[in-house]
Amino acid sequence: MGDRVLITGGAGFIGSHLAERLLAEGRSVTIVDDFSTGSRANLGRVEGHPRLRVIEARVSQCASLADLAGEASLIYHLAAAVGVDLVVRSPIRTIETNIQETEAILAAAGRHGVPLLLTSTSEVYGKSQNEEFREEDDLLIGPPNLGRWSYACSKLMDEFLALAYMRERGLPVIIARVFNTVGPRQTGRYGMVLPRLIAAARAGQPLRLFGDGLQTRCFAYVDDTVEALIRLGGCPGAWGGVFNVGSTEETTIRDLALLVKELLKSRSELEFVPYDVAYAPGFEDMRRRRPSVDKLERLTGFRPSTPLVEIIRLTAGLTRIFAPRQCAGRSDVAEDRHAG
Length: 340
Hints:
With 340 residues, the chain is of the alpha/beta class. It has a domain at 4-182 and 220-248 and 293-305: NAD(P)-binding Rossmann-like Domain (Rossmann fold, 3-Layer(aba) Sandwich), CATH 3.40.50. It has helices at 13-24, 65-71, 84-89, 91-112, 150-169, 193-203, 222-233, 253-263, 275-278, 294-300, 308-316; strands at residues 4-8, 28-33, 52-56, 74-77, 116-121, 173-178, 181-182, 207-210, 216-218, 220-221, 242-245, 250-252, 270-273. α6 (193-203) crosses α8 (253-263). It is globular, with a radius of gyration of 19 Å. The two termini are 25 Å apart. The relative contact order is 0.13.
């Protein structure tokens, strides 16, 4: 195996930023993506790069998947169904995509013993009432008659399967539970809130908020999320571990909309839309979603820290107002060679 990294879902929002970063570090990258939610446009900055190979295929239907895994020194499995809109309106596709693709890549990685980082989601914490979510917390998932929870359950099954591969077959795996991540190239097509708000504010359209707008989230900048994934992927001490990846700066969605409105100097008004109108009767949301990233920081010396106001400006393509962030690092962790 050389220094080649395999990324499933590498044409997606986070995957494309990850691919760019790895190529910039001098590594070779293979992407497997069916472009169902990702796009070739996301790879525009690295299109034609001599160390990039892009294979258009669904992971579970990629005939050369085992060979591609065998060529890799590390696998990032990002391919998954994304966005609340898709999850609610296409539950079969959501469940099958998440489980089948993970089964396929774990089997391929397991054949060659290639370390694999699986991106999971904060959704697995379900309806937890904890003030902040820790990796060892019990999980509280809603009832199966509400399709909204199918995504959380399918990603949780991905986690169980990955960790079973490690226990039973010795495959090195890492679970990264990614919280809300935003930045350039993210689309509002599947319900992502920040790009929707930015697009509406620019067009002078109402900023539509679901429910009362008082639900809170923590938004991490995509470069911070990529930094965390690279550090975890380069650290054997992370094998077998579950790690939250996200910001700890908490905001209500209402305040997020007001900040977008202010930064873009928009005259758009806020419009509150009941959940049963936006999605379906009985839709349940998580009122709060704040991660503890202490475990990530202890192992890697890094925690996402880009301020929300800067994240919005960068996502909207506005001028930077903060100095570029210097990544924290420790000389005694192997993955510090990846620090930016």
